[in-house]
Amino acid sequence: MSPSTNSATYSPKRDVIIMATATAISLFGDAMMYIVLPLMWQEIGLTALWQIGVLLSVNRIIRLPLNPLVAWLYQYISYKHGFYIAMALATVTTLAYGFSFGFVWLLTARILWGVAWTFLKLGAYLAIPTLASSEDRGYLFGLHKGITRTGALLGTLIGAILLDQIGLMPVMIGFAVASAATFILLPFMSNVRLTIPSKEEKRVEVSYAQLLRMRFIVSLLVSAMALTIVFDGVLKSTLTYLLDGHMTEGLMIGALLIGVATMGSLLQSVRVLWEGFLSPALGKMADRSRSPKTLFAASFLLTGLLLIVLPLPIPLVIFILVVLLIQLLATALEVFNLAIAAEASEQTSRVRMMTSFSVAQDLGAAIGPLAGYIAAEWFGMQALYAGIGALFIICGIYWLRTSDSLAQANIHYVERYVK
């Protein structure tokens, strides 16, 4: 579907930049909660440590049932209107974080933030395939991902610095004002309706049940969930623990002693630093490749090998190098996965495919930390990483050997069975 805008002024890249910028700013408050809750939980009215875990996870859990509902709404509103709703909620919730009114207050704010994030994430997932062509779909997804990731980093850095200087309430008020300021940008987005094709563009739509009977689609969804379980769950929550085994005395750089917490933070942040320019470049690589699924498979294979090596007793320098390579490949895997999913949505159903993809990601992000620590407790850290490394290698072999035939089978299924 072509956007119903004036072709002389219409710019898909401009729309994606505005969407990504608004999303990045909306993340300021959320990123601060990961600093504030563990450090100041009593000061902001919490009474037990378990409440911290609930507040940091409820926004992810609420997205699971919300994805289909928001996808349905996007069939009747433009994605610009969806972003208006999301940024209004982001402004309110960020402001609410600054007031210490206790657990129920913050729980309500975190649930509303989950609603806002569903509109933002799913809006982008639906809009970019609508706006893009096959020549720039991966690039636009990469551009959006790179800008958005920067928001979490800026929120963490700026918020942490200002928190010690002026306190929580002024910081959150400032971040809320920044979110509200995005309403200046939103009118410049094109007013595109997502899934109402013209008669000439009318195509068969695939149901959720039919999607889940396609091996190609199920492979994409399983891959998306595996990526979020490992990168947003296991690796993020256990990296500092692994690092502690390699840095028993810290690391001296000149006269500066780098401790485990600092090094862990640096290794986590470096991925965000390079995603601003690396994600668009990787997206463009996927657009120009004859077989982006081969790139996807190769990235899975190499990442699997590195994950197996990571918990082994290796020198610190090698450990850091392995972590950096895994973070690099994580960016590549997520961009390639998005590009392939967006292409598949054009053959099936844009709304149902990208909604299913978003649910798979949210489910993986929700269960990743818990599943990782339970597995580490039962089997040990080396066994955990050997298991997820083997899973990635299996995924890589699967995509390498069967991706083309699966894609063809997917097209044949739509042509033969979907009426």
From TrEMBL:
It is a multi-pass membrane protein. Keywords: Membrane, Transmembrane, Transmembrane helix, Transport. GO terms for cellular component: plasma membrane. InterPro entries: MFS (IPR011701), MFS_dom (IPR020846), MFS_trans_sf (IPR036259), MFS_Vesicular_Transporter (IPR050930). Gene3D superfamilies: MFS general substrate transporter like domains (1.20.1250.20). It is found in: Cell membrane. Signal peptide: none annotated. It holds the Pfam family MFS_1. The keyword Transmembrane helix applies. Its main location: membrane. Residues 15-407 form the Major facilitator superfamily (MFS) profile domain. The chain crosses the membrane at residues 16-37, 43-62, 83-105, 111-134, 169-190, 211-231, 251-274, 295-312, 318-342, 354-376, 382-400. GO terms for molecular function: transmembrane transporter activity. The keyword Membrane applies. PROSITE patterns: MFS. It comes from the Bacteria. This is MFS transporter.
